[in-house]
Amino acid sequence: MTVQTSSDPSDHRFTMPRLSFRLIFGLGTLGILAILGLFGSVFLQDPNALAPANRLQFFSSDHWLGTDGLGRDLLARVVAGARISLAVGLLVAAFATVFGVILGLLAGYFRRLDPIIMRVNDGMLAIPELLLAVALASLAQASLTMVVFALTVPQIPRIVRVARAEVLVLRKSPFVEAAYISGSSRFKILTRHVLPNLVAPLSVQVTYVCAYAILGEAGLSFIGAGLPANTPSWGVIVSENRTFFMQAPWTVFVAGFFLTVTVLAVSAVGDELRKSAE
Amino acid sequence: MPQAAPSATDPALRVDDLSLVINDARKPISAVNDISFSVDPGETLALVGESGCGKSLTALALMGLLPDAIRVSTGSITLHGSDITTLSERELQKRRGDNISMIFQDPMTTLNPLVTIGNQITETLRIHRKIDRGTARERAKALLERVGVSDAERRLDQFPHELSGGMRQRVMIASAMICDPDVIVADEPTTALDVTVQAQVLALLQELQREAGMALILVTHDFGVVAQTADKVAVMYAGRIVEQGPADAIFAAPKHPYTEALLECSAPPPPIDGRARDRSALPQIDGTVMPLTQQFPGCRFAPRCAFATERCRTEVPRTRGNRHTVACHHPRQDLDTGVGS
What CATH number should be reported for the domain holding residue A268? Predict the structure, then answer.
């Protein structure tokens, strides 16, 4: 930093999370996966190229992670799956946050809307997430849009709950009241004084939603309610290879390993964010 | 709404026979009874009393900020030519920050931690006036310098946590003043500050208020603060103003036994001259404030009053006197003698 702003020790209130092993692991893993997902297709084989002659091969220099039951390169497929998983995770987190925060602000700030929004919210929370997701996913033809939609809806109530609780505290906080009595409009109070103060508490919840979405997409795809078969999603890869599990267990483990590590990485980032928020 | 243009001789704020009632499930409880006072431009009125006497509630009423359960049952509050008890929320919101503004007790929590000092100060200005960002910033800077914040240019871009408590209260004062309001209500503005900073902030507040010709209503329980700043004092007890008058008159010759007792309690302890100090020598008022829910036909101070008679327990004393008024059957000074009356 070139400009020394202040020698006040309390200067560091908005510090970034401390660079711990977990954070480096989390961000590093996600970074590598993102780069692979974005640029992997340039140097890897076609994830959908069939080569039945080479089916169910173990790790080799030609196929680093072996091949599946149709002889497709597993590394290429798993990397293509990373792109799908991360996209689903981010999109679900983003949509759930947008809708969840809007509803949470309305419920927390406009007290008359509170009972209506929160009862519907509680009702939705009572339905198991994956069950609701399966039901929603089966409303239309399998596609990425449907999967994101099906995974977003069950997550919205979770964001609403956290956001509303924070808004309830913030609306009674002295600086919000001070803004009110200096004549600020409700819209201005909400956007300028309440919303920015939601970022820290919500960021933790959002990372969990993201981790859940990645897992949820794999789950939906595994049971055939998610992405169409032959799409290189991790859930689909596990699902289509499970018949070969006795002969070639690595075909299942490879996708499972990537899934586990990714979800761990997202959760690690979330944990570190929570620690720094406390 | 007919709006008489406020003339120069009108008080900045006038409260007439204001009563506030708490809507309780069983029976309405009256929290503030028939209080009247007025403040002229450039004048400071101190509203003094113990916790729960209704002084903070009165301050909220002045801002039109009463909680849902409390309503104005009678009386009026005249600000800038109109009675704010009859105004709609929309109308009120136009006046808050512009005609009347408020300074709170705790500057640590009344500033948004995520908004820069500059933006917090200019916010009020940009709501009430058509003014561009640059001009607003210039005004904020000038005002920050005026309230004694050093290095104002740099402070504008700092966040609240980078400032000390005294600095933050100065920022609060600046943001309360930026629209040149007619009236500033300060609710215990120095209670949360260090003793050394208290006097500075009070002196500043008073100086600015005189300069800009604003009326200041100071809500406090601290007679030290009152002595330092107030022109007029209204002493509240259990929802009533028991004594009101010029500050010097009240300090020199309090008429109500409660005021007298309060002043005794806040007087400095006797000097230590070799003897061990007797702890019980610290003066106090025996008993406690009668709960608001309790029905009582007489003066609510009577059970704690050394001079109470049978009449005090059966009949509410009327407010008597001209400039220095008192609501007591047995005032401690003659009504129209005493200093200042």
Answer: 1.10.3720.10
A89/chain B closest Cα distance in angstroms: 28
Minimal C-alpha gap between B215 and chain A (Å)? 17
Confidence of residue A214 (pLDDT cuts 50, 70, 90): very high
- B93 residue type, one letter: Q
Interface test with A, best of B112, B115, B116, B162 (most A CBs within 10 A): B112
Total domain count for chain B?
Answer: 1
Count of domains forming chain A: 1
What CATH number did the domain enclosing B85 receive? 3.40.50.300
Nearest to B110 among A8, A14, A178 (CB): A178
Residue A18 in any domain: the answer is: no
**Does residue A90 sit in helix, strand or coil?**
helix
Question: For the segment B2-25, what is each residue's pLDDT rounded down to a tens digit?
Answer: 444 555 568 899 999 999 998 877
In a domain, B315, yes or no: no
Residue B51's domain comprises 13-230
How does strand B70-79 pair with strand B13-22?
Answer: antiparallel
Contact at 8 Å (CB) between B233 and B61?
no
Averaged pLDDT for residues B175-195 = 88
Q: Is residue B211 assigned to a domain?
A: yes
| Residue A20, domain member (yes or no) | no
- The torsion region of residue B309 among left (phi > 0), alpha (psi -120 to 50) and beta comes to beta
Tell me if chain B has a CB within 8 Å of the CB of A183: yes
Contact A8 B94 (CB under 8 A): no
Residue A19 domain-assigned (yes or no): no
The verdict on residue A233 lying in a domain is yes
Asked if residue B235 belongs to a domain, the reply is: no
**Is the confidence at residue A5, as pLDDT, over 50?**
no
Are B69 and B266 a contacting pair, CB within 8 Å?
no
- The boundaries of the domain holding residue A170 are 27-48+64-277
Q: By the CB < 8 Å criterion, does B102 face chain A?
A: yes
CB of B110 within 8 Å of any CB in chain A?
A: yes
Q: Is position B118 within any domain?
A: yes
Banded pLDDT at B200 (limits 50, 70, 90): confident
- The interface predicted TM-score (ipTM) is 0.72
Confidence of residue B29 (pLDDT cuts 50, 70, 90): confident
Q: Which residues of A79-88 are buried (b: 16+ CB within 10 A; e: fewer)?
A: bbbbbbbbbb
| pLDDT tens-digit readout, B128-179 | 988 899 999 999 999 999 888 889 999 999 999 999 888 898 999 998 989 9
Q: Which one-letter amino acid corresponds to residue A80? A: A
